[in-house]
Amino acid sequence: MPAKPTSEPQEGAASPADEAGRRDAPRYLPEDAPGPAREGTPRHAPEDTPRHAREDTPRHAREDAPGHAREGTPRHAREDTPRHAPKDVPAEAVTPLIRGIAVLRELTEANGTLSLSGLERATGLARSTVDRITATLARMGYVRFDGRDVHLSPRLMELGNAYLSALRLPALLAPQADALADELDESVSLAVADLDGIRFIHQATRRRAMSLSFRIGDLLPAERTAPGPLFATEWTDTDWQRWRQRRAADPRDLSFTAVPPRTYGADERDAETFVRRTQEASVNGWSLDDQLIEPGLVAISVPVRAPGTEGTPGRDGRVAAPGTDPTHGTDATITAPGTDDTITAPGTDDTIAAPGTNSKIACVASVVSHTSRHSAQRLRTALLPRLRSAVRAMERELRATPPPEPGPPPSDLARWTGTSKQQLGREFVESLARGLTVVTAFGEDRPELTLTEVARATGLARATARRALITYEHLGLVAWTGRTFTLTPRILSLGFPPLSRTSLPEIAQPHLADLTSRIHESTSLAVLSESGEEIQYTARVATARVMSVNITVGTRLPAYATALGRVLLADAPGPLPGPANLPALTPHTIKDKQTLEQTLAVVRSQGYALVDEELEEGLRSLAVPIRDRSGRVVAALNTAMHASRRTPRECVTDLLPELTRTATRIQTDLHTASRYTRVPPT
Asked: Whose CA is closest to 640, among 554, 569, 509, 537?
């Protein structure tokens, strides 16, 4: 746990200069304008009060001075650059929430792990502030501690899951993307626009030594991708200006950690190339990436258009490309058949017809390969027709799928925060926990919420919910449409990329360590081999004893004679594998399949397996199942010990409840992590 913070002023406040800066606060949500911002705030939660925001101020800067916008923001926080958020922090923004988001982003950019001192350096926050923020995140299950290191936990993915659920595209289109990847034997991805970048929402990868894929949630610069020019056909003048500003501020793409940085800074020729690619994409309806990200990587993309989105993007039916050098293709006119829609580059005479559609782009589907398998030209000639066919199927799916039936709205999601504040006191930053809980109010049947609906779902006062939404809007995590709020793709920047590649053993390992520390026995996780005849250990935590069970990760043992194997076999379909007469490993081993099947039926009904000296004399083992989101047993958890330490009855009365609780915690993390990602069992 973090070191106990030293005594310091209350958190969350703004200076008098901040109070003077209230003219910069967002002017929306007029229904909450009357009355003080503290309406409904519990008396034990001063962190929601803007008058007390000076505590935790980074030692390197006066963020609360007029004109400064990086309050609690890491000095290297790439997501907090001007392209992602306005410079001026609204006076009603929740300072601890800004700082908590900064911590999560630094952990994300560090691939999920940083020491407490590393977080202090990366964010510029005081150590006591980092301690309190990470303690709060740990209470929420979003991070865990390993010594002085802080690790992102799978439960944090519930924030990204809220966005993906509200978006609905991964759930609707992933089957077609996966089928296309299987058919072409190439990686297929789905991406959405995130301002002047693209962010991945689904990956169907191929298992090869040369693997090509990005992580879900990874952010890439539009100009170095195949989807980028397609999204840019819908950019406005403001979007193009933002893009130019970002390129000028970051010419080597150092803020995009998912791609190799440019060796040299981008120049005007790169801008002209992207303009040309955008113009070509608007005519062709597809776009290529010919080794723009890194040598050898090629991709081709086709837009998936949303149904019922009439109107060509941009002003007056025109999509504005960036202002370019007048010598670039002046007086050139290209017309796409069957349409009069045009795209005009400001400051030039270029006029290029947009594709024959008025529907906006919902996402972009891409096939990704490398030059040893396909050149960019071959992607276009050989794979583009099949990609287009798959995209048409995706668009039919979007048109045919009705909106979800509204279910019962959640309520009081943040009620638990008051109890945590009472239990942990000052180490628990309630305003941070409340703010993060606001994200989970969104979902599949709740893609857009009013302020009143957010307040009702979380159980927070309207003023408290309003301040959290103002903070999220400032950070670019929430968009305000005039009456309702929606989550933006930037929610995926909060831990989703590194966590989207987690495996079941990685999920289970900290839970095994905790279980071992409680019961003082070795614990293990195992899966069934492809043949079904053996189990393979995939995670393990050994206890410190003179006499202990000596098994390492990767060890294989016969499934029929182990508690782990029987839990797995009890759920396996089909007949039992192996010979009719099973080898007797000890005098106690079950040797015939009929008796074994009867034993498995008991295991199936009681939910656990106890094996007493059947694998090895003196060895007693107890195991319980780990189930995926569908209820299928995908792994088993066990503890093993010498028979003299506990009787079979004591194993059931003393150890089984502990194993069951741990299995439930592992399953909870697994279900969260696997909602929109594939979690490998090994």
From this structure: 537
Give me the pLDDT at residue 549, please: 66
Predicted confidence at residue 285, as pLDDT, reads 96
pLDDT for 316 equals 34
Residue 34's pLDDT band (cuts 50, 70, 90): very low
Extract the tokens encoding 264. Answer: 């040299």
Place of tokens 């991406």: 191
By three-state DSSP, how is residue 245 classified?
A: helix
pLDDT given at position 509: 97
Q: Which residues contact 626 (CB under 8 A, 6 or more apart)?
A: 504, 508, 525, 633, 634, 635, 636, 637, 663, 666, 667, 670
Token pair in block for residue 152: 């992102």
The answer to whether 534 and 556 are in contact (CB under 8 A) is yes
CB atoms within 10 A of CB 317: 13
Measured from the Cβ of residue 177, the count of other Cβ atoms closer than 10 Å reads 25
pLDDT, tens only, 454-508 = 999 999 999 999 999 999 999 999 999 889 999 999 999 999 999 999 999 999 9
**Count of Cβ atoms closer than 10 Å to residue 627 Cβ:** 17
Identity of the residue numbered 31: E
Token couple for 524: 């293990």
What tokens appear for 53 in the block?
């925001």
Q: Is 11 exposed, middle or buried (0-12, 13-18, 19+ CB in 10 A)?
A: buried
pLDDT of residue 543: 84
CA dist 519 → 514, 613, 624, 658 (Å): 9, 20, 15, 8
- SS3 of residue 207 by DSSP: coil
Cβ–Cβ contacts within 10 Å for residue 75, how many?
14
CB 106 within 8 A of CB 122: yes
Residue 350 C-alpha from the chain's centroid: 41
Q: What whole-number distance in Å separates Cα of residue 216 and Cα of residue 637?
A: 29
223: left (phi over 0), alpha (psi -120 to 50) or beta: alpha
Q: What is the pLDDT of residues 75-85, one digit of tens each?
A: 343 333 333 33
SS3 624: strand
Amino acid 644: pLDDT: 87
Handedness of CA 338, 342, 348, 349 (dihedral sign): positive
Residues contacting residue 660 through CB under 8 Å, at least 6 positions apart: 607, 608, 624
Amino acid at 659: L
pLDDT at 355 over 80: no
Q: Residue 660: which of 602, 597, 606, 600 has the closest Cα? A: 606
The residue written with tokens 């670019």 in the block is 476
